[in-house]
């Protein structure tokens, strides 16, 4: 077990309210194993929610699976929905444990996993840390060592970043020369988006390839007039990879924009990491276009979207994912 001596700020008592809530949910189930699971999960979710509420976050319990008896019966869930941020999974950690157990069923839509230590008396809870790495299910449960967790002190800045990313970037504002926070206006957008590359070819439709050049793709075509870029960091520490996301806009009449999305290497690099994927997700988070780097200088996708339409740009490298939401 980790040394808890320096985590007093992340500790809180499990009040009678928490146990009453856990008992109420427990009584709705008849299987002993489910009763125990629900009780511990409810305490962990309560502790995680209380920790966040004390720091100014709002919890939407109606949207939290951990408070839905049907979900409790079917799944091992201990989540809290943080308004304007996303869904956090609060996994209970019992005395003697050296890892948190993340069930496969909760590995899809969580933005982070909190490790909530419950003492032997179930009267005290401590936030040990968190991980934002989405586990790749290799069985029913994935174990993440407590030593691999990020510290509780880093959770605030992480959630602030998630809250910023939860608000869609409004592309129509770019046409008014508004530069979004975290983005940088690109003066040579046209040059960057249309620079010839022997290893990349544009294709419209459901996907863009990164193979040899097509004659049809090399023909002159209108190019974006407005563009902004930002650096994206995938992963943390020595394993972190930085790439540049560039988005260009080309008006297609009063109600539509042609949108160009490109990933380029960071400054000082000449190639994108192999197997880096770029995808466009629709409003339902379904991938409708995608491209993959294969020792390429850049990967690009383009499409037309209507005013007020929402979509997301997703960048994936292994188990590291970055998603940015947009509204036309």
Q: How would you state the average pLDDT, rounded? A: 83
Task: Supply Rg.
Answer: 23 Å
CA distance, first residue to last residue? 49 Å
Q: Give the helix level as a range of percent.
A: 10-25%
**Largest β sheet strand count, sense and barrel closure:** 5 strands, mixed
Number of structural domains: 2
Structural class by helix and strand composition: alpha+beta
Tell the overall outline. elongated
Strand content: 25-35%
List the secondary-structure elements in sequence, H or E. Answer: EHHHEEEEEEHEEHEEEEEEEE
Number of separate strands: 17
Strand order of the largest sheet: 1-6-5-3-2
Which parts are unreliable, with pLDDT below 50 for 5 consecutive residues or more? 1-8, 195-217
Kindly describe this structure.
With 328 residues, the chain is an alpha+beta fold. It folds into 2 domains: 8-160, no CATH class; 168-327, no CATH class. The protein is built from 5 helices and 17 strands. The strands form 4 sheets. It has a 5-stranded mixed sheet with strand order 1-6-5-3-2. Strand 16 and strand 17 form a beta hairpin. The protein is elongated, with a radius of gyration of 23 Å.
Compose a concise summary of this entry.
The protein has 328 residues and is an alpha+beta fold. It is built from 5 helices and 17 strands.
Would you spell out the secondary-structure blueprint of this structure?
Blueprint: E1 11-13, H1 16-26, H2 32-53, H3 69-74, E2 79-82, E3 86-93, E4 99-103, E5 110-118, E6 124-131, E7 141-145, H4 155-166, E8 169-170, E9 184-185, H5 189-194, E10 226-234, E11 241-251, E12 256-265, E13 277-281, E14 287-292, E15 299-306, E16 310-317, E17 320-327
Parallel strand pairs: 3-5, 8-17
Antiparallel strand pairs: 1-6, 2-3, 4-7, 5-6, 9-10, 10-11, 11-12, 12-15, 13-14, 13-16, 16-17
């Amino acid at each position: 077990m980790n040394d808890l001596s320096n985590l007093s700020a992340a500790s809180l008592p499990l009040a009678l309210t928490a146990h009453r809530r856990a008992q109420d949910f427990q009584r709705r189930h008849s299987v002993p194993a489910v009763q125990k699971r629900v009780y511990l999960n409810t305490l962990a979710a309560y502790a995680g929610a209380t920790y966040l509420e004390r720091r100014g976050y709002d919890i939407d319990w109606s949207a939290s699976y951990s408070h839905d008896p049907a979900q409790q019966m079917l799944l091992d869930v201990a989540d809290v929905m943080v308004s304007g941020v996303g869904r956090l999974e609060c996994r209970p950690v019992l005395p003697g444990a050296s890892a948190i157990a993340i069930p496969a069923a909760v590995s899809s839509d969580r933005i982070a996993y909190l490790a909530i230590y419950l003492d032997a008396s179930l009267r005290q809870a401590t936030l040990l840390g968190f991980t934002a790495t989405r586990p790749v299910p290799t069985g029913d449960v994935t174990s993440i060592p407590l030593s691999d967790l990020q510290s509780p002190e880093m959770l605030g800045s992480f959630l602030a970043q998630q809250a910023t990313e939860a608000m869609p970037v409004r592309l129509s504002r770019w046409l008014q020369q508004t530069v979004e926070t975290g983005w940088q206006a690109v003066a040579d957008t046209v040059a960057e988006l249309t620079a010839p590359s022997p290893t990349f070819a544009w294709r419209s439709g459901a996907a863009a390839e990164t193979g040899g050049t097509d004659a049809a793709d090399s023909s002159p075509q209108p190019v974006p007039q407005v563009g902004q870029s930002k650096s994206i960091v995938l992963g943390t520490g020595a394993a972190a990879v930085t790439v540049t996301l560039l988005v260009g806009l080309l008006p297609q009449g009063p109600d539509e924009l042609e949108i160009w999305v490109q990933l380029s290497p960071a400054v000082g690099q000449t190639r994108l990491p192999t197997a880096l994927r770029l995808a466009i997700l629709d409003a339902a988070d379904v991938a409708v276009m995608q491209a993959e780097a294969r020792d390429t200088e850049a990967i690009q996708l383009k499409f037309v979207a209507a005013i007020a339409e929402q979509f997301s740009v997703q960048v994936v490298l292994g188990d590291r994912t970055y998603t940015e939401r947009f509204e036309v």
